[in-house]
Amino acid sequence: MAVKNVKQIISDVRSIQKSRENTYRERALKLFPWICGRCSREFGGKKLRELTVHHKDHNHDHNPPDGSNWELLCIYCHDNEHSRNEVADAYDNTSTGQTTEKDDGFVQNPFAGLADLLKEKPQKKD
Length: 126
Ligand SMILES: [Zn+2]
Ligand SMILES: [Zn+2]
What we know:
- There is one protein chain.
- By secondary structure, the chain is mostly helical.
- The chain has a domain at 24-97.
- It has 5 helices and 2 strands.
- Helix 2 runs antiparallel to helix 5.
- The chain starts with a helix and ends with a helix.
């Protein structure tokens, strides 16, 4: 029962994240070369899906048009980056919780689980 709810929430969050990401992701892809900022792998074509936009200050609502808060990372390095900063993120959430919209915490908390889900997909080859 609880599992179903979590899955529902995750799929909701995924679609919210997807629509948000499409906006800044496209902008970031126009600004930066399609290379992971950590492992320096190049991306293009179908593989471009695996290149994600990381927010340097971890605030997904902070999207300056010059791209100064963005970094292109492949999903693996992105996942690493977030698990490394999990503690910092948690602190950030509580300290800014009052000034940011409450959907922020909603989106950020399931992120670790999401990354795991996303990891499974690209490995599937057609
Ligand atoms: Zn990478
Ligand atoms: Zn990130």
